[in-house]
Amino acid sequence: MDTRVQTPPTAAAASHADGTFPITLQLNGTSHEANVTPWVTLLDLLREEAHLTGTKKGCDHGQCGACTVLLDGKRVNSCLQLAVAVDGCSVQTIEGLAGDDGQTLDPLQQAFMDHDAFQCGYCTPGQICSARGLIAEGRAHTRDEVRELMSGNICRCGAYTNITDAVMSVLEKEGAAR
Length: 178
What we know:
Layout: E1 21-27, E2 30-36, H1 42-49, E3 68-71, E4 74-77, E5 90-92, H2 107-114, H3 124-137, H4 143-149, H5 160-173
Parallel strand pairs: 1-5
Antiparallel strand pairs: 1-2, 3-4, 3-5
Helix pairs in contact: 2-5
């Protein structure tokens, strides 16, 4: 998982009198502008400003993966990313994975349902976003690789076997499994 902290672009360097910085990002394919204070995380921007509450706040320390989103296609813990650092970036959340009609599920969302890969559901959005990023990375081809590369996403209910089954089923359908 990419946890690097990016230097804010110079466009965001001009703060307003109230100490906020203007940022623009592509949020689930739509341009989103906001004025944020320098300490606001991407997670808080998503939940409090954009009202996208699918991304969960678990530990707020980057240790559980509940807040995983895709930043320019790479999985990141949104609780560790400052909003000013993602100015100009593309962010995809669990809400952005479904089809444009809002009814067609992403194959991973469907696989999680088909394989009963959740219990309480709290970690599910982060697990699915992490799995979507994992598949895009192209590094996981076996059950062991999926388990290892998804180890940053904790499921306190212990649905790991079913989560792995769901991810493997999508890998197999997309021809990436060995």
